[in-house]
Amino acid sequence: EGVRLWGGRFAGGPSEALARLSASVHFDWRLAPYDIAGSRAHARVLHKAGLLTADELTRMLEGLDRLEADVADGSFTGTVADEDVHTALERGLLERLGPELGGKLRAGRSRNDQIATLFRMYLRDHARIIGDLLADLTEALVAQAEAHADVAMPGRTHLQHAQPVLLAHHLLAHAHALGRDAERLRQWDERTAVSPYGSGALAGSSLGLDPQAVAADLGFERGSVANSIDGTASRDFVAEFAFVTAMIGIDLSRIAEEIIIWNTKEFSFVTLDDAYATGSSIMPQKKNPDIAELARGKSGRLIGNLTGLLATLKALPLAYNRDLQEDKEPVFDSCDTLEVLLPAFTGMIATLRVNRERMEELAPAGFSLATDIAEWLVRQGVPFRVAHEVAGECVKFCEPRGMELDELTDEQLAAISEHLRPEVREVLDVRGALASRNGRGGTAPERVAEQLAEVRADLATQ
Ligand code: ARG
């Protein structure tokens, strides 16, 4: 038989149908350790305010310790008869301490300020877990970049050959995106380090409790909320967390899509390690990139969690409304999703085998050095507009003849434009093209080495 936190003014118990609709214990039970931590902090401020004697505080903390141990080993759990995690834990405390002492803890707090606080604590912990997993993935990308520091590949725009780049440059582009996601998590955490405990239902408490002491006790570096209505009603911290996790999903999906394409027969840029690929139940030859596909698929789910949550929040009047109970499952799912996806994804990246010959063979293909002809001409004093036309003429000449740009003879070059002296051939070479892009952020080997060092240094400070 569960306890209820609000029986007094009701003639009878809730209908079965209401109880089933209203229950959240099946998904908010994971907040139990945070609820108990909150209860400890709350007991201490009740004592400070003279509402618990020193002896009562000692017995209360001891009861909470026992409850915590029983929750941890599974001997105490919430049941459907308990409406939510707070109700279940109150029952647990009453069972352990009796109604006299057990019934004192609820003074001056509400499930509204409790849930707003616990939810922040939970998400802050998971922001750290996800941040660490992101760092592992970034590390795997950086290690691949280091191991293939000199490998050239076709850089693409519109998925068409554009200009040769270093594979390391390309991999580091993904590492930078993930680095910004990790930074978003850290900045979100800083914004979220404010405790709503002490806000009560919405208006604060009349019992002389000290919200700042609770905040410090629970590790909220920036103290307690300045406004109790905002503290209990705001969920932008949840929406922002859902956005950052959705963005991580999107960034993973962009890597994933490339892995899927690179792993095709036609590309043959990479081979997946057997431990990170799957087979087919009917086609014996198959080796599928399921991790990458699941990452691509789960990014949709992460976006759904964000949009569902935003729809729940839209137009909600202040302060707490029960709609807000719908805020937890989406982001719990986002945490679970990333925490199971990221380790597999990292393993896939770390064990990826690169087909360097294939990448380098295709690096200059598709006239990807045409820009180099144009830029060579610019260095000879030709206006870029003309240079662009001339380089285009070279492509137009070669394409129908099945020739590459570096196969143009001196005569053919001269026939296309008087500016095209034989020396232009010096830039029609992948190494030369890479080395020439030597401004900050460019694909020249020494620039990419600098970038690598920067990303490494950044990882080390996290
Ligand atoms: N379970 C609720 C939630 O997740 C917290 C309880 C507040 N309930 C209430 N009737 N005021 O938002």
Automatic annotation (TrEMBL):
<dbReference type="Pfam" id="PF00206">
    <property type="entry name" value="Lyase_1"/>
</dbReference>
<keyword id="KW-0028">Amino-acid biosynthesis</keyword>
<protein>
    <recommendedName>
        <fullName>Argininosuccinate lyase</fullName>
        <ecNumber>4.3.2.1</ecNumber>
    </recommendedName>
</protein>
<dbReference type="GO" id="GO:0042450">
    <property type="term" value="P:L-arginine biosynthetic process via ornithine"/>
</dbReference>
<dbReference type="InterPro" id="IPR029419">
    <property type="entry name" value="Arg_succ_lyase_C"/>
</dbReference>
<keyword id="KW-0456">Lyase</keyword>
<comment type="similarity">
    <text>Belongs to the lyase 1 family. Argininosuccinate lyase subfamily.</text>
</comment>
<feature type="domain" description="Argininosuccinate lyase C-terminal">
    <location>
        <begin position="367"/>
        <end position="434"/>
    </location>
</feature>
<dbReference type="InterPro" id="IPR020557">
    <property type="entry name" value="Fumarate_lyase_CS"/>
</dbReference>
<dbReference type="GO" id="GO:0004056">
    <property type="term" value="F:argininosuccinate lyase activity"/>
</dbReference>
<dbReference type="Pfam" id="PF14698">
    <property type="entry name" value="ASL_C2"/>
</dbReference>
<keyword id="KW-0963">Cytoplasm</keyword>
<keyword id="KW-0055">Arginine biosynthesis</keyword>
<comment type="pathway">
    <text>Amino-acid biosynthesis; L-arginine biosynthesis; L-arginine from L-ornithine and carbamoyl phosphate: step 3/3.</text>
</comment>
<dbReference type="InterPro" id="IPR009049">
    <property type="entry name" value="Argininosuccinate_lyase"/>
</dbReference>
<dbReference type="InterPro" id="IPR024083">
    <property type="entry name" value="Fumarase/histidase_N"/>
</dbReference>
<dbReference type="InterPro" id="IPR000362">
    <property type="entry name" value="Fumarate_lyase_fam"/>
</dbReference>
<dbReference type="GO" id="GO:0005829">
    <property type="term" value="C:cytosol"/>
</dbReference>
<dbReference type="InterPro" id="IPR008948">
    <property type="entry name" value="L-Aspartase-like"/>
</dbReference>
<dbReference type="InterPro" id="IPR022761">
    <property type="entry name" value="Fumarate_lyase_N"/>
</dbReference>
<feature type="domain" description="Fumarate lyase N-terminal">
    <location>
        <begin position="9"/>
        <end position="304"/>
    </location>
</feature>
